[in-house]
Specification:
heterodimer, A: 2 domains, 14 helices, 11 strands, elongated, B: about 400 residues, alpha+beta, ten-stranded mixed sheet
Chain lengths: ~375, ~400
């Protein structure tokens, strides 16, 4: 502890170099944080999807509907807690570039099966009371400046309303949810859609089934698929997690390539910074010899040198990762293209570990060399 | 003239001694090369994707969809509507028949070769007999054309490469439908190569669409009869359709993903560029510091300050150029032509394409590298110029 001032002085002996080494590491970890955030959004926030929720889609393809009549049959299966259905609406708000997910749901079971969407009771009641009501995610409301009570028109691309050109909705509520859960969705009432559409009546998009025992997901999935085998609409059941994962895979290796390339480069940056730090220790060989002459032991010198490189790595990296976290808190910068935009906690830990490793790796070689230094050699070298 | 000779002399000295300072120069070169690799390779994804989309479609063909639909996937046309569209003026005719193809566009679940067992939305298009005639760019490269009235299909070259079960002789089982793959086609690298084609009538049955379609592709008499065709259709009270040139339709579809990749690419490369500039500053600062004495000597001998500044800047830009060249070459060798596929959010279906490292991108990367070298050299150059001669000579 008493050597802290010495470490401090050594760090700032070349202000220019230290400043820029710090800045390089800062940038490297800022990037690391942002890349991990992007990777997470390409994975569609898969880790938060429920394991006790199963998704039933049409076996031919997700775009094919399922009959509404399946609901009662699914509910009659023992071990099923709750069944609800969603229907993809694909409506457009003002301009096609304003893309967001808008889905027709059955409000009461929907909110029960998805307790992670939170909204005040009076807004829930308003939604149940208003056939044209809709609830929207906090991020989506912010994006378009919507408030509770606003009237929002959507243009139907698949469904045209019986009368008029657009579907009109009233914002009944704005839902919030924990970090990592999509808050850019628009949910409205299935009964409103069903009564006013001219095609696909009596069909729904897909079913969500909450089962009592998550560990029986595989059995239950087989059982459901067997129930509808050889019918005109066969089903394919997966856990919600599997469903999201398989959709994320469709984006393909683009995300992973971007991450892989950038990680390699990030490592290169780390090496560069490390070599600079190592160089600064090498320059001081004779000084270290003097310290040894004064009676500093080898291990003390090892610790002194390591402390220096650790300090630079952790300060620069910590600030960079911190800024990345703050940026992620501000939400998606692309205006709705990345619906989940958070820096996951485990990546923060990973970043911290990389920082420590970088500090130690950069310092350890010169530190060991310094520890083993023979005083006479070192002093003669100059 | 004298100034120029001075400057050139110092410059040559600096550049010749780069190998002697290899270690610290590497910091700048590696940093800049890394940035250029990322910059060029990420943007090559966007350029490959948009090339596939932009190269699709023809100005001489018009695509008719229901008004309000933003893609074929969400569109719908009834058989009666199709009959009316076939009467429209401006359409090329073969005898009495309009050269049009009313089509269905659906997706079928297949696995990607890269992740077996998962499901990918592969687009499947039902076409009418004229569908091949009016797409002269499509030709069979393996097997044969499917026969109309059967459950035979042909697969595009991209789909054949990316997804399982699309070889000639394979059978695709999808729900209760079975499709026999009898051929593979190519279509000038357009997005059609990711599609699987079959008879629209068979597909109507398989997907229970009755006598409905999703879009109609029409061969125009000439590029200029588009307006005649469009105006006749939009004025017809029996129809509620939107018409666009096929080429515009595809160009429009590439926007979302291209913008997303470009945003990410520029943001990452921009940030990394700042890091690389810091690396270059460190290098040049070390270069100036180790040669403080030489520089002071030169100036004491009467060399102009600006010669010193220019020489330091040149050295750092040379490092930038080396880094840029290495980075560009690495990106080209590593990624040009890399085949992959992704989902196009607008149609909810897969698009296969190849990364494209274009000369334009390489030029942009090199320009970026030179800029990083220039900015990185600026501070150290000024420092070299300001070095007080007496104390610099006394140093060491």
């Amino acid at each position: 502890m008493k050597f802290l001032p010495l470490v401090w002085k050594n760090i700032w002996r070349r202000k220019f170099r230290t400043t820029f080494t710090l800045l390089s590491i800062f940038i490297a970890f800022l990037l690391f944080g942002i890349l991990m955030t992007i990777r997470n959004s390409f994975a569609l926030g898969v880790e938060i999807a429920g394991l006790d929720r199963l998704v039933l889609i049409n076996k031919i393809s997700l775009i094919m509907p399922l009959p509404f009549a399946y609901k009662a049959r699914l509910e009659s299966v023992p071990g099923v807690n709750m069944v609800t259905h969603n229907t993809w609406f694909n409506g457009i708000y003002q301009d096609p570039s304003n893309f967001f997910a808008n889905i027709a749901v059955d409000p009461e079971p929907f909110l029960k099966i998805y307790p992670e969407y939170k909204l005040p009771p009076e807004q829930v009641k308003a939604w149940f009371d208003d056939r044209q009501g809709a609830i929207v995610g906090r991020d989506l409301a912010k994006r378009f400046g919507w408030k509770v009570g606003d009237r929002v028109p959507l243009q139907g691309t698949i469904f045209r309303p019986r009368s008029g050109d657009v579907w009109a909705f009233n914002i009944s509520g704005i839902y919030d949810a924990a970090d990592g859960i999509d808050k850019t969705q628009f949910f409205f009432r299935y009964d409103y859609l069903e009564e006013n559409r001219t095609i696909l009546q009596g069909d729904v998009g897909w079913y969500i089934v909450k089962i009592a025992d998550g560990s029986r997901a595989v059995d239950m999935s087989r059982r459901f698929d067997a129930m509808f085998e050889n019918s005109s609409a066969e089903t394919k059941t997966t856990t919600e997690k599997g469903f999201v994962e398989s959709f994320a895979k469709q984006i393909g290796d683009i995300g992973s390539i971007m991450i892989a390339v950038s990680t390699v480069v990030l490592l290169m940056f780390g090496l560069v910074a490390a070599s600079t730090m190592a160089q600064s220790v090498r320059e001081r060989t004779s000084e270290l010899a003097v310290l040894k002459t004064l009676g500093f032991t080898g291990p003390t010198i090892l610790v002194l040198v390591l402390a220096e490189s650790l300090f630079i790595a952790v300060l620069g990296g910590g600030l960079g990762l911190g800024l990345a976290w703050l940026i992620a808190r501000q939400g998606d910068p692309t205006g709705g293209l990345l619906s989940v935009f958070v820096l996951p906690g485990r990546d923060l830990w990973l970043g911290g570990a990389v920082m420590l490793a970088m500090g130690i790796l950069a310092g350890v070689m010169p530190a060991i060399a310094a520890m083993r230094l023979k005083i006479t050699d070192a002093l003669r070298r100059n | 003239m004298f100034w120029l000779r001075q400057t050139l002399a110092v410059m040559a000295l600096n550049i010749r001694t780069i190998p002697a300072r290899l270690n610290s120069s590497l910091v700048a070169i590696v940093g800049i090369a890394g940035v250029v690799v990322v910059f060029v390779s990420v943007l090559s994804i966007a350029s490959g994707f948009s090339a596939a989309m932009q190269g699709s479609g023809s100005r001489g063909r018009a695509l008719v969809m229901r008004s309000g639909a933003d893609s074929e996937m969400t569109s719908g046309l009834s058989g009666a509507e199709v009959d009316i569209v076939n009467q429209a003026p401006g359409v090329a005719r073969d005898g009495r028949n309009a050269l049009t193809s009313a089509e269905l566009y659906v997706v079928i679940d297949l696995s990607k070769k890269s992740s077996p067992g998962s499901s990918a939305n592969v687009p499947m298009r039902g076409i009418e007999p004229f569908g091949m005639t009016l797409r002269p760019e499509a030709s069979i490269i393996d097997g044969r054309m499917f026969r109309f009235g059967t459950n035979e299909v042909i697969a595009g070259r991209g789909a054949h490469g990316q997804f399982v079960n699309l070889n000639v002789g394979d059978t695709i089982v999808s729900g209760q439908n079975r499709w026999d793959v009898v051929g593979v086609f190519e279509a000038d690298g357009s997005v059609a190569e990711t599609e699987v084609w079959c008879d629209v009538r068979t597909l109507q049955g398989a997907y229970r669409r009755g006598n409905t379609y999703q879009s109609l592709l029409a061969e125009l008499e000439s590029v200029d009869t588009y307006d005649t065709f469009r105006d006749w259709l939009t004025a017809n009270p029996q129809l509620n359709v939107s018409i666009r040139r096929e080429k515009d339709y595809y160009a429009n579809q590439s926007q979302t993903l291209t913008r997303l990749i470009q945003t990410i690419g520029f943001a990452i490369a921009g940030l990394m560029g700042i890091g690389a500039v810091f690396g270059a500053i460190l290098t040049m600062y070390t270069a100036v510091a180790t040669r403080a004495r030489e520089i002071a000597t030169l100036r004491a001998l009467g060399f102009d300050t600006s010669s010193v500044v220019v020489s330091v800047l040149t050295e750092s830009m040379v490092l930038g150029a080396i880094g840029g060249a290495i980075g560009g070459a690495a990106a080209y060798l590593g990624f040009n032509g890399y085949q992959t596929s992704t989902i196009n959010f607008q149609t909810f279906s897969q698009v296969a394409f190849a990364f494209r490292v274009t000369p334009g991108l390489l030029g942009l990367g090199l320009f970026y590298a030179l800029s990083m070298g220039f900015i990185g050299g600026l501070l150290p150059a000024l420092r070299a110029a300001r070095l007080p001669i007496p104390s610099a000579l006394r140093e060491l």
